[in-house]
Write a structure and sequence with these properties.
Elements lengths: L12 H11 L8 H14 L3 E5 L2 H11 L7 E5 L4 H8 L4 E5 L21 E7 L8 H11 L2 E5 L7 E2 L2 E2 L6 E5 L12 E5 L5 H8 L5 H5 L19 H11 L2 H24 L4 E2 L6 E2 L6 E3 L3 H13 L15 H6 L1 E2 L6 H7 E3 L8 H14 L5
Parallel strand pairs: 2-3, 2-4, 3-13, 4-5, 5-8
Antiparallel strand pairs: 1-9, 6-7, 6-11, 8-9, 10-12, 12-14
Helix pairs in contact: 1-8, 2-8, 3-4, 3-6, 9-13
Length: 379
């Protein structure tokens, strides 16, 4: 059976983890490997500060806390996203206000945002689906004119760019995921990108259980104490060591995934030309990272048949998000503004093909042949 995903392994992960255990004798958070990850990510992205977290979900929660939201405040976001995007804001008492998506990218429709703004709106949270950037110039203009903060859920957007800017560095805060399904993995983990230098110290305090321990470790105070609300968002050094091995060869991983992505696109284009499949369409200003290769079938019925057929051929494919506004919690905690033209319809059509680092040509060829066979064709 061809799996949907295999966590990336680039070669030095186990050596670095052994070094953390046997040489550094440091397993808890913010050790040498964590610091090296921070520095490398700051260098690669240009963010003012990057802080590793225990998950992408916790990166979003930390960003929500940094937005200083109060119960009843509203956050505009797409319904087509993972539950963590909305959960982060619900946990601080905010109300998710969902708006429709664009069918070409599955990203938030920037033309629907302004109409959803009320006097309770405090944040716009965008989701860069499949590592394809949202229309950030328009979104940042809306945010500036209305005095709103912008959080970028760039869980899928590491090493992807919008007009040359790293995703996660355009808004006030960016959030990465390093889950095992992502391009770069530490098993469970993430990072928050703080783009306003004035908020770096507050981010460090919240991340360190509400203490000023980071200042103590830098020798800025002679002892540390509880100074603010916070929680424990620090991942283990073992996770950071695993991640560093991949960040050091980030472009190698990226190039390999792009090769697989382009092969899918070229080989499946004849089916798209016949109107049998649709693809996501990355805009020219976006440099994506081949996080996934998604195809869209005619409708939910055909997608279900497609998924079952490929399973019988030994190929694992996966649909993606069930729109949050249709879920019990989404209906309880939030609301949908405007008309759901594309969110549900397009989510019912989309499925994702196997995609992972070092996917060999023979394996990919089997996937492509199975897709042609579903439509009664051969390449």
């Amino acid at each position: 059976m061809i799996p949907f995903n295999i966590p990336p392994h680039t070669g030095k992960e186990l050596d670095y983890m052994a070094e953390a255990v046997l040489v550094n004798h440091k397993l808890c958070g913010d050790g040498p490997f964590t610091k090296r990850c921070h520095s490398l990510l700051e260098e690669q992205t240009g963010a003012a500060k990057v802080l590793l977290t225990t998950s992408g979900s916790h990166a979003l929660e930390l960003a929500a806390l940094l937005c200083d939201l109060k119960p009843g405040d509203e956050v505009i976001l797409p319904s087509y996203t993972f539950v963590s995007t909305a959960n982060a804001f619900v946990l601080v008492g905010a109300v998710p206000v969902f708006v429709d998506i664009r069918p070409d990218t599955m990203n938030i429709d920037e033309t629907k945002i302004e109409a959803a703004i009320t006097d309770r709106t405090k944040v716009i949270c965008v989701v860069h689906y499949a590592g394809i950037g949202c229309e950030m110039d328009t979104i940042m203009d809306i945010a500036r004119r209305h005095g709103l903060k912008v959080v970028e859920d760039a869980a899928q957007g590491v090493n992807a760019f919008y007009k040359g800017k790293a995703l996660g560095t355009i808004g006030d805060f960016g959030c990465y995921s390093f889950h095992e399904t992502k391009n770069y993995s530490m098993g469970e983990g993430g990072a928050v990108l703080v783009n306003d230098p004035a908020l770096i110290e507050k981010a460090e305090i919240i991340r360190e259980k509400g203490t000023n321990r980071s200042r103590f470790l830098r020798g800025q105070v002679d002892k540390y104490t509880w100074v603010e609300y916070g929680s424990s968002y620090l991942p283990s050094e073992l996770n950071a060591a695993h991640l560093l091995a991949q960040l050091e060869v980030a472009d190698v991983v990226n190039d390999d995934r792009l090769r697989t992505w382009h092969t899918y696109r070229e080989q499946l284009q004849p089916l798209a030309d016949q109107g049998l499949l649709d693809f996501l369409q990355p805009p020219a200003e976006c440099t994506h990272n081949a996080h996934m290769f998604a195809v869209k079938l005619k409708d939910l019925e055909e997608r279900t048949a497609f998924t079952q057929f490929l399973k019988e051929q030994g190929v694992t494919v996966s649909f993606h998000y069930v729109p949050l506004h249709t879920a019990p919690a989404g209906q309880r905690f939030g609301r949908f503004h405007g008309e759901d033209v594309y969110t549900t319809k397009e989510s019912n059509r989309l499925t994702r093909l196997p995609m992972f680092y070092h996917m060999d040509e023979e394996t990919q060829s089997r996937v492509i042949d199975a897709i042609y066979a579903f439509f009664g064709q051969k390449r």
